[in-house]
Write a structure and sequence with these properties.
Layout lengths: L1 E7 L3 H12 L4 E4 L11 E4 L2 E4 L5 E2 L6 H8 L8 E3 L4 E4 L4 E4 L3 H11 L4 H12 L15 H8 L3 H7 L15 H14 L1 E4 L4 H13 L3 E3 L2 E9 L2 E9 L8 E10 L3 H7 L2 H10 L8 E9 L12 E4 L10 H4 L9 E5 L13 E9 L9 H22 L3 H4 E7 L1 H8 L27 E3 L9 H22 L1
Parallel strand pairs: 1-2, 1-13, 2-10, 7-15, 13-19
Antiparallel strand pairs: 3-4, 5-9, 6-9, 7-8, 11-12, 12-13, 14-17, 14-18, 15-16, 16-17
Helix pairs in contact: 1-8, 1-15, 3-4, 4-7, 9-10
Length: 481
């Protein structure tokens, strides 16, 4: 079969790119190895509960948010309901319990009242987040780390921790996180607020997949791409098979343009060896980001009945005294590891029937701590993790344990199994200061990247931006030619 565009992978980047190109009349084939579209933007059912795989809150969409334009263009705004998240986050450690609002002026005023001696540093922080300094003609701005920036403007360690409450949305260590990247991402939460997709992120993924199909495109689920064929300096098409078929039962489809919505490491393995080696050299200096461990909960009652009134809480262990302790804590025993808990029942999320609730507990984790483990040990460790975190939640929300009707643990190994991402990385390459950005692969001029591993980085917004920009790049190229 011949197509205008073949998209490898059905995450948000691939779906957005495919939808835009299909809207503009391009014949699109999208191939996804999972049984549903969405990548990390998916849900799954257990008993009465719809469990959200990845979405806690998405920045915007707001008036100045590029997603608003994208969603209007693709008809998302009239088809998907976005629920406003009530607060940005609640930070808890053994010394403070602070609720941070999305409104930056209110947040700054609240923090200044708590830490009056840091008034100037707080002002500098929000100026950087809301109006990050841009490179101008003839000038050179050297990127630094978030940790170094905070140390340069603020003395109080607890204030730094509070400002870094949601660090896990981006990275695992403030001293290796790009200030430029963080400023744009964090600034969007403060500028545009945040939302949750009513019914779960699968609604958005299914909508985009349906949009592709309704505009003449084809979606193949449960199919895996095993190769990209190349002639000269152009990708000719892809080789693929049904996921459970034998390796020799392959098919080939052809296209003018190929979009990779998977990791660059996977793309390199799909290319002929000479091109694959060259692409690996391109990203050799980049590091994979961290993975996540998630504990999914179905509750037999709303947690509001237990007196819990916060959408998301970020709990920092008492051993984390300063931001210098964060990276080590992310590898500490789960009894001490900092974590996030999200109570979807604080919104009209439609994830649970009336009288019940759904939540998720999440922490930074690493695949290397779960691989090469016998099945019995793997399962035992998951039970241990669940019991430890439920004990910790019981201290925060008395009655928590008795409200748990169902729970399930997803590890970095789970993330890798369902996304095929190396190291189970959920945000693509680590956003280190001054990291190399790979926007294209020059040896193959019709191979494009639209994923968390590309120019715009990870997270829901990064993937959506990357997919839309990729589609525009293809449309511009075709219009010029």
């Amino acid at each position: 079969m011949n197509y205008d565009v073949i998209v490898i992978g059905g995450g948000l980047g691939g779906l957005t790119a495919g939808a835009k190109l299909a809207r503009e009349g391009r014949k699109v084939l999208l191939i996804e190895q999972h049984n549903r579209p969405g990548g990390c933007a998916t849900t799954f059912r257990r008993k009465d509960f719809t469990l959200e795989v990845g979405l806690h809150e998405m920045d915007g969409p707001g008036p100045r948010d590029m997603k608003t334009r994208i969603f209007n263009d693709l008809g998302v705004s009239g088809s998907i309901e976005f629920l406003k998240v009530p607060e940005f986050y609640r930070f808890i450690n053994d010394r403070y319990a602070v609720t941070i609002p999305h409104n930056p002026q209110e947040a700054a005023a609240q923090l200044t009242e708590l830490f009056p001696e840091e008034k100037e540093g707080i002002a500098v922080y929000f100026e950087q987040i809301l109006t990050p300094k841009k490179r101008t003609a003839g000038s050179e701005i050297v990127d630094t780390s978030v940790g170094e920036f905070l140390d340069s403007i603020i003395r109080n360690d607890d204030l730094k921790l509070i400002l870094l409450g949601n660090l896990g949305y981006f990275h695992d260590d403030p001293y290796t996180l790009s200030l430029a990247y963080y400023s744009i991402a964090q600034g969007s939460y403060y500028s545009n607020g945040a939302c949750f997709i009513k019914g779960g992120s699968q609604r958005l993924s299914d909508y985009l997949a349906g949009y592709i199909e309704s505009h003449g495109g084809t979606i193949l689920l449960n199919h895996i791409v095993t190769g990209i064929t190349v002639e000269g300096n152009r990708a000719k098409g892809v080789i693929y098979r049904r996921r459970n078929d034998p390796p020799q039962a392959v098919r080939e489809s052809f296209a003018d343009e190929v979009i990779a919505n998977n990791s660059m490491a996977a793309v390199a393995d799909m290319l002929p060896p000479e091109f694959g080696t060259e692409l690996k050299n391109e990203f050799a200096s980049l590091k994979n980001g961290a993975s996540l461990l998630t504990l999914y909960f179905g509750f037999n009652r709303p947690l509001r009945e237990l007196g819990h009134n916060y959408y998301s809480i970020f709990v920092y262990d008492e051993s984390v005294k300063s931001q210098a302790d964060i990276a080590a804590n992310n590898r500490d025993d789960f009894a001490r590891r900092s974590f996030t808990f999200v109570d979807y029942g604080q919104l009209d999320s439609h994830l649970a029937p009336a009288g019940k609730d759904v939540g998720a507990l999440c922490c930074i984790d690493y695949l290397e701590d779960w691989i090469n483990t016998e099945r019995k040990q793997y399962d035992f460790r998951k039970v241990y993790v669940a019991q430890v975190f439920m004990d910790r939640m019981e201290k925060i929300i008395p009655g928590f344990r008795s409200a748990v009707e169902y729970y399930e643990v997803g590890t970095p190994h789970t993330v890798k199994r369902y996304t095929l991402n190396p190291d189970g990385a959920v945000y693509g390459f680590a956003q280190n200061p001054g990291r190399k950005v790979i926007d294209s692969f020059k040896p193959i001029d019709n191979l494009h990247f639209a994923s968390a591993w590309g120019k715009t980085g990870g997270g829901f917004s990064g993937a959506i931006y990357g997919g839309y920009m990729c589609a525009f790049s293809i449309l511009r190229k075709r219009s010029v030619s």
